[in-house]
Amino acid sequence: MQANIMLLTINDDFCGLDMNAPLGVSEMVRGLPIFTEDGDRMTSVIAYVYKNHSLAFVGTKSGKLKKIRVDGPTNSALEYEIVQVVDTGPILRDMAFSVDHEHLYLMSEKQLTRVPVESCGQYKTCSECLGSGDPHCGWCVLHNTCTRKERCERSSEPRRFASEMKQCVRLTVHPNNISVSQYNVLLVLETYNVPELSAGVNCTFEDLSEMDGLVVGNQIQCISPAAKEVPQIVMENGDHHIVQLQLKSKETGMTFASTSFVFYNCSVHNSCLSCVESPYRCHWCKYRHVCTHDPRSCSFQEGRVKLPEDCPQLLQADKILVPVEVIKPITLKAKNLPQPQSGQRGYECILNIQGNEQRVPALRFNSSSVQCQNTSYSYEGMEINSLPVELTVVWNGNFNIDNPAQNKVHLYKCGAMRDSCGLCLKADPDFECGWCEGQNQCTLKHHCPVQENQWLELSGTRGKCTNPRITDIIPVTGPREGGTKVTIRGENLGLEFRDIASHVKVAGVECKPLVEGYIPAEQIVCEMGEAKPSQHAGFVEICVAECKPEFMARSSQLYYFMMLTLSDLKPKRGPVSGGTQVTITGTNLNAGSNVVVTFGQQPCLFYRRSAMHIVCNTTASDEGFEKVKVSVRVDKAKIHQELQFEYMEDPTILRIEPEWSIFSGNTPIAVWGTHLDLIQNPQIRAKHGGKEHVNVCEVQNATEMTCQAPALAVDPNHQSELTERPEEFGFILDNVQSLLILNKTNFTYYPNPVFEAFNPSGILELKPGTPIILKGKNLIPPVAGGNAKLNYTVLIGEKPCAVTVSDVQLLCESPNLIGRHKVMARVGGLEFSPGMVYISPDSPLSLPAIVSIAVAGGLLIIFIVAVLIAYKRKSRESDLTLKRLQMQMDNLESRVALECKEAFAELQTDIHELTSDLDGAGIPFLDYRTYTMRVLFPGIEDHPVLRDLEVPGYRQERVEKGLKLFAQLINNKVFLLSFIRTLESQRSFSMRDRGNVASLIMTVLQSKLEYATDVLKQLLADLIDKNLESKNHPKLLLRRTESVAEKMLTNWFTFLLYKFLKECAGEPLFSLFCAIKQQMEKGPIDSITGEARYSLSEDKLIRQQIDYKTLVLSCVNPDNVNSPEIPVKILNCDTITQVKEKILDAIFKNVPCSHRPKAADMDLEWRQASGARMILQDEDITTKIENDWKRLNTLVHYQVPDGSVVALVSKQVTAYNAVNNSTVSRTSASKYENMIRYTGSPDSLRSRTPMITPDLESGVKMWHLVKNHEHGDQKEGDRGSKMVSEIYLTRLLATKGTLQKFVDDLFETIFSTAHRGSALPLAIKYMFDFLDEQADKHNIHDPHVRHTWKSNCLPLRFWVNMIKNPQFVFDIHKNSITDACLSVVAQTFMDSCSTSEHRLGKDSPSNKLLYAKDIPSYKNWVERYYSDIGKMPAISDQDMNAYLAEQSRMHMNEFNTMSALSEIYSYVGKYSEEILGALDQDDQAGKQKLAYKLEQVITLMSIDS
């Protein structure tokens, strides 16, 4: 064939040929649809080729992206994934791939979205991954993930990457089940499709255990778990426990294959059948009554059972009947019954009767028969005539014999629910019940008295009951024509149908009994014959079997024959489809038993009837539209009356308007059609999502009706903002089927209107006349025509208001109301209240209001004049009183001012003297060891960590070896953390124990501070995590010492800040202590209550005027009698002990407290000018006693004048005889001293404030300056000055002012980063940086929280402790008043570190009010201090470690490590099981065999080893 090639000139005029030949084809190109979508329209598409697969990505109208794979022209496309990309709106037309084709960019109206081309990671198993259909995805075997091939490591090697389903790893295990009592069994795992495992593999039994697997070819050998790792299996969970046996690659650490493995527990089975029928290898030991996996554990061969038929069991028995209260045995057939062995008990039967267990001895005749011995049984109540009872046969106490047939014993009572002879004889013949005529009750024969012919039984010659009785007949009226079925109820109405078959008459007419209605003895149903015209009424008469008097009965009711008539029917017409409810009226229409109504040929379905009405429902007519005759039949009577009913054409629906509603329905719909007036109860319906809703309609006339729209079944939680169309929409018009679903309607539902609440409080305040605006959405449905209106009703209180509607708000003209009213909006079936409105009145006043105001005003003026006159008179009197008070106040004010001035001047001079004495060497610092011991173990003087370890010689070597091993464990971070966490989780591990363990660990780690710091950081990090997890407020972190970490932190600072205390902070702290002590001793201090004239603490303030004088006594120097006497300032109101203490302070002012003599060991001797010497004491025979109050002796009591010479002499134990008569022989030690002697060392933790305890012998109470306020003996007059005691609170201010400089100095030293050439301790910067790191890690950016953490960590943990307890740092003695003042300073210090604002008022505690003005500036210091530390360069771990190593080296041998380890070990002893358990569960501990090492330690340390 010759091709004709003709070149064409294509110019501007060229318009193509008829076949577009320039493209070179002569046939049409046809497209094949490979994917169609009906529901969610496609809006955009893009495609690319990946590894020979064409992939199309389709965007849709609802914002989804569909991923579709096309494998060729013949195959259809596979839609393998749908992703919802945007929430609302369609995806726009343009889409684009990223350069590497790994992402796709999509646009919607409002956003640009990047979507990965594949999301393989969502598939978690190999089969899901390869079954997903996504060609990008394959299974990376050893990494156990679904991914692209190029992202899987070494994927080119064989079997490391699966791209087809058949390449997925499979695993089988043999054996695949073992008993829980088998340990360390060798398991062989067959693997398929597994890559080479040269790096090794682990076998894991879920969380039970993990061990190395041995790879042998394509088999892996594992060992089943050891004894303590096997799961516990208890009865409730069945007899087995399935775990996943997983293979984990050592190369990747990932599980790459798993299979189910079963642990079974035979011993949970407690019956032979359940044991041997178990799918596992379980055997039953017949004589031990246990189930086991190991048949060898059965005591002897014949006792082993493996097959169900060999189990001891009861066989199926006929019904076992036992009458109540009759003694009889129960014999049971069985097989394989075991013979009890020596020492085992015999057989018993157990019957569980109504919850009570009855045990009866039983006899085993042989292996196939057992008998429950002679016994009688009973049960409660006469409502049950036969009670089935569980029967169990046991031997040896509780060994059950299986009862697979579930044989039961039936206990029965003849007399229960059988009150008549007929009911009695009707009972099951096996019961052997009969009627005892003498007693008129149903009994067993031997319970009936023995006279002849007393007992009737069914099988006997006299098996008939006498005295039948009729109790009821239904109906009692019927037509003469007969056919009525009469039901006769009563007693003894024969036992067989033939007894009554021919002897029933009703009102003299034969009535034929029907077999199907007969209930023996109780009921006869018979059909009436025709009555003669002469018969009108009569009784029912029957004979049972024979018509003798004793077998005849007559009813008490009469039966009447009636004439039935009809008069009318309504309605007279209805649709041809039927369903019309017609009511026929007449007389006696309730007679007879059966009614049939027909309309022409069609039945009318009977509904109900009464004497005057019959109601029935028409059925569809076959004959079309016509009038038909109505006929009614009652039994055999046909009622003659000409009534007609007309079948009309079915109604039709022509139009409905509007064709929309809202989801909740109940909007009005107008309906037009034909013949609508035929329908009695028209309804409208809508079906959606399988649920139907119906609403009512009201007919206006034949062509119109109005309906309320039905609701649409939309899930209220997922009410979409989209419109919905119901699946079916139509009308229920009687039986008209054609209108149930309207096909030609487009009825649409729109979202419900939604209103917003007025505001959070729910109350809107308005002026009268202001419109009320209700905001919302969907208020106007977006109907196509745009003229949609919903009918809104808005009620303000009870009143409606005029409404204007827009799409987002309703405007309501508020009615003329004032006050508070509830607003209620109604639309469709919805009601919503956005809240209340409060309309405030501003209306002009009415005339009555004006009059009443004027009257009230006049009365008010008269009243005011009267008050003014009275006031004038009163004010004259009060002026005088005021002047008096003014003078008193002026006096008081000048006294306070004077007191402040004097006190300050005095203190300045004293402190000047004091500071001049205190050059650096003068401060009595404690050495490092004593200082740390007092902080770490407060109150314990001679702690074991200061002594050598004490162990009996024969154990010494073992214990030392054990403790060295234990030391290695303590130095292992995994062990130490596990140890601390385990202790903290024990409930019996108290707060005190926590502190003790923290201190002991720190003493052991004193020489390894780098390690201690590392552990501390880990514990603090855990504590922070725990605090945030438990949803506590983050500010509570480190607030209280509730964990080991918190006490360790205190101890860490204690170790590292000693140098700083010595060089910097010690001096201002010591100055403050001395200043407080000096200032307190300036004024009187009550030696019993501890109250003082000068105090910072309100609780310790003497609140009354004490008159006192300062004396200067000359004291002989005890060390050198010839040196000049030392002047000492004393108050004349001081007790003798107080005088001694002041003298000791003066003489030994540069001697540390512990090196001074004690006041209690010295006597005070007054050397008078006459040469007489007198020993002064707190108590002697000159002591004054008034009304049970004994006052301690003071210098005033002894009348010691200013300038007297005194001396301190050592106490003599022998009686000391006075020089002259005026002295008093002194007792060896006064009672009072015994009473207040301090316990422990002079610097014991808290100097005890002595209590006022009455002397037990005499009932006398001690006092010094003030009597204790709790004792009521104190008269007002005893209170010194008469002023109000609160007036003395100004003394707190005086004392505070005096001490201000020292408090400021201390705070300034602590809260500044540069101190007289000494740098900020590294520990502080390091710890603060650590806390900041933790806050960053947990995203805590609240500066208050960070500030609080730092405050809780350093000021609260360390400084407050030092301020309150200077005796931890210095060798001093602190008395109770100094302690109280230091507590106030410490509280102020804490308040300065807090970020929360303290609202102060008149009820605030005085210590807060005292420093209220200073705290803001202190807070600024703290904030500046924290901020300066934050700005300092971070400390490298290298520098910090060097610093810690230096600190460790300096104090290497301060504590005895062995003793400390021994103390820590005591906790291991107490909680060894829990600690070992925790180590077993810890993977790392398992790798390091820590549990084994600890067990070694326990063995070495145990006493009996």
Q: Alpha-carbon distance between the termini? A: 114 Å
* Portion in helices: 25-40%
Secondary structure: number of strands: 73
Q: What oligomeric state do the depicted chains represent?
A: single chain
Strand percentage, roughly?
Answer: 25-35%
Structural class of the secondary elements?
alpha+beta
Largest sheet: 9 strands, mixed
Please tell me the overall pLDDT.
84
Q: What shape does the CA trace take? A: extended
Unreliable runs: 1214-1254, 1271-1283
Number of helices: 27
| Computed Rg | 54 Å
Q: Main attributes?
A:
1505 residues, 8-stranded mixed beta sheet, 9-stranded mixed beta sheet, 27 helices
Layout: helices, strands, pairs:
Elements: E1 42-50, E2 53-60, E3 64-70, E4 78-84, E5 96-97, E6 103-107, E7 112-116, H1 126-131, E8 138-140, E9 145-147, E10 161-162, E11 170-174, E12 177-179, E13 186-192, E14 201-205, E15 209-216, E16 219-223, E17 240-249, E18 255-264, H2 272-276, E19 283-285, E20 290-292, E21 304-305, E22 313-314, E23 320-323, E24 328-335, E25 347-353, E26 356-366, E27 369-375, E28 386-395, E29 399-401, E30 408-412, H3 421-425, E31 433-436, E32 441-444, E33 455-456, E34 469-474, E35 477-479, E36 485-493, H4 497-500, E37 504-506, E38 509-513, E39 521-528, E40 537-543, E41 552-562, E42 565-570, E43 573-575, E44 581-587, E45 595-599, E46 602-609, E47 613-618, E48 627-634, E49 637-648, E50 652-657, E51 660-662, E52 668-674, E53 683-688, E54 691-701, E55 704-708, E56 728-732, E57 748-750, E58 754-755, E59 763-766, E60 772-777, E61 793-796, E62 799-805, E63 809-813, E64 819-827, E65 830-839, H5 847-917, H6 928-936, H7 953-970, H8 973-984, H9 991-1004, H10 1009-1029, H11 1044-1056, H12 1058-1082, E66 1110-1115, E67 1126-1131, H13 1136-1147, ...
Parallel strand pairs: 12-18, 23-30, 35-41, 43-49, 51-57, 59-65, 66-72, 71-73
Antiparallel strand pairs: 1-2, 2-3, 3-4, 5-6, 6-7, 8-9, 8-10, 11-13, 13-16, 14-15, 14-17, 15-16, 17-18, 19-20, 19-21, 22-24, 24-27, 25-26, 25-28, 26-27, 28-29, 28-30, 31-32, 31-33, 34-36, 36-39, 37-38, 37-40, 38-39, 40-41, 42-44, 44-47, 45-46, 45-48, 46-47, 48-49, 50-52, 52-55, 53-54, 53-56, ...
